[in-house]
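Wed. Picked up where I left off yesterday with Flavodoxin. The coffee machine is broken again, so keeping this brief.
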Amino acid sequence: MNSNILIVYGSSLGNTRFVAEKLQSLIQKADLKGANDVSPETIKAYSTIILGTSTWGVGMLQDDFETFVEMLVQQDLSGKTIALFGLGDQQNYPDTFCDGMGKLYELLQNKGVKFIGEWPADEYDFASSKAYREGMFVGLALDEDNEPDLSDYRIEKWAESIRELL
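Structure written out below (tokens, as returned):
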């Protein structure tokens, strides 16, 4: 298994950090950093990067990720493998569920990266999402507000699928 893996998260209330920490324990040999602690040199040092953000308000990235993404898109990401996970609220924001993850996907899709970790959308109840493509989410979608009881199972299954691809 590739030991050159970085998990980057942005977390205001702790939920995304919790998911990132759980993923680190499941995807062994991965380093974990908050978005504010990542430099261009850090990005260059890893071949696989797992990015996790929550969605705030109406489809906005988490605050730390706004600044991080500005730096990230300036980097040469050619040949890197990217996996995404996002947190959203299907009930209160059904029209922008996990849009933060979708925004990351849109910003990185033309940067020469290979995306892994799509996740089926059939067990979710939302109206619209920038992270939704042809029946799948572009990464792991979680709803800690309304479905926290499903998160552990989803995280474990997604981590297993990621490990198989690395």
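Quick read: Helices lie at 15-26, 40-44, 63-72, 99-108, 148-165.
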